Amino acid sequence: MIKFAPRRMSSFIQVILLALICIIGLHFFLKSDSTSVSVKAPEPAEFKQQPSEERPKEPAKNRVKAALVSLVRNTDLHGMRQTIREIEDRFNRVYKYPYIFLNDVPFTDEFKKGVKDLTDSEVSFGILDDESWGTPDWIDEKKLQHVLDTADYINGRSRSYKYMCRFQSGYIYKHPLLKDLEFYWRIEPDVKYYCQLDYDPFVYMKENNKMYGFNMAPNEYMVTIPTLWNTTKAFMKEYPQHVAKNNLLEFAVENGDYNGCHFWTNFEIVNLSFYRSKQYEDYFKFLDRAGGFFYERWGDAPVHTLAVTMFLRKDQVHYFGDIGYYHPAMGFCPKNSKSSGKCVCDPDKENEFNYGCRRRWDIV
Ligand SMILES: Nc1nc2c(ncn2[C@@H]2O[C@H](COP(=O)(O)OP(=O)(O)O)[C@@H](O)[C@H]2O)c(=O)[nH]1
Ligand SMILES: *[C@@H]1O[C@H](CO)[C@@H](O)[C@H](O)[C@H]1NC(C)=O
Ligand SMILES: *[C@@H]1O[C@H](CO)[C@@H](O)[C@H](O)[C@H]1NC(C)=O
Ligand SMILES: [Mg+2]
Fold it and tell me: Where do the coiled-coil regions begin and end (predicted)?
């Protein structure tokens, strides 16, 4: 047993002990002062590069009823987490718009927790009904099966891909969870948002009377839509009153044919009155009856695009050239991103004009 006997301790040891106590005390004093024991993370460098008045600190007062919306599979959890991470970093941690996730089967607890863990915003999960996800009774199952057995283009043999395109074309905006929304911003798993966004694009669209916003416009694989244009022409013949006076058809039609230009709908920001309009509903019903979602592989991108070009004027459509973006296969980097310092991409590598239809947008 060690006995502590101060009276017998030499003055040399006393000095050493005193010095040790001072050093330890000073260490704790300095530590609590400079690095702080609080668990709060420092502001990311990204924020500090910007003049403080440039980046809004809180949501605009005039916000609109809007949400970030995605149809998504449970198996896309990892990709969706990547997307949310980007959306939160670039935009939504300030604006706090809610997320709505839709699925043809119930979301797993793992999916729900996995996405909720990344945001303070409200998150809702919805399931689809049989009308919006499936084969309508006028579709010839045998004919469809033949297509599923023989189609030789990407996703041509996937039944669920067809359901997905039909849902995004004519049902997503009808889901009860979207009932009160004025705008949606569609998101998808595995995408990147390259640039910090210092304003609210929903409010921008509202204040500038925009109905449809896009950021990329590539060309369509025409083998997936052999009769879409013919069917659309038949629609215009039956409903000439639906076609706008100063429409945008010139963007999509060259020499009387559809040129395949389409807004890449995995990103789109839309005033949902557009999809809820009589014009759009009549168009979707007309296409759905014609069967091309099943016998061909009509995508929601050419469908939305042809609707936009028939029913809207150019000034109602906004090109979000500042929302740098990547979805597997291609992306674009805003041309001013070198000077703005707000993007993490190279405009020389991913130039917006790499896509022919982007060029066409400027000349129509
Ligand atoms: N719930 C559900 N979502 C799907 C299904 N197929 C595709 N999706 C979703 O629909 C969106 C588009 O599908 P994706 O595979 O990315 O198609 P791509 O972008 O055309 O390659 C993604 O958000 C997918 O998660 C499906 O069968 N069920
Ligand atoms: C959406 O569009 C409709 C129809 O043009 C318009 O009346 C409405 O004000 C727009 N909503 C917003 C929030 O801008
Ligand atoms: C489109 O319609 C025209 C006239 O109705 C027809 O001659 C042509 O073959 C059709 N094209 C396709 C691809 O169905
Ligand atoms: Mg995708």
Answer: none
Q: What is the mean pLDDT of residues 249-270?
A: 98
pTM: 0.86
Pocket-testing residue among 227, 229, 230, 258, ligand 3, by greatest number of atoms within 8 A of Cβ: 230
The count of structural domains within the chain is 1
Cα–Cα distances in angstroms (integers) from residue 224 to residues 49, 133, 247, 294, in the given order: 46, 20, 25, 10
Determine, yes or no, domain membership for 198.
yes
Band of residue 225 on the pLDDT scale cut at 50, 70, 90: very high
Each residue's pLDDT tens digit, 291-308: 999 999 999 999 999 999
Token pair listed for 231:
């069917």
How many angstroms does the Cα of residue 188 sit away from the middle of ligand 1? 8
pLDDT tens-place string over residues 281-293: 999 999 999 999 9
Cα-Cα-Cα-Cα torsion 202, 276, 295, 247, nearest 10 degrees, comes to -70
What's the pLDDT score for residue 20? Answer: 58
Q: How far does residue 127's CA lie from ligand 1's centre (Å)?
A: 14
User: Is 268 noted as a catalytic residue in this protein?
Assistant: yes
Is the CB of 316 inside a 6 Å radius of any atom of ligand 2? no
Of 220, 268, 296, 350, the catalytic one is: 268
CA distance 154 to 165: 13
Q: Residue 320 belongs to what domain range?
A: 66-361
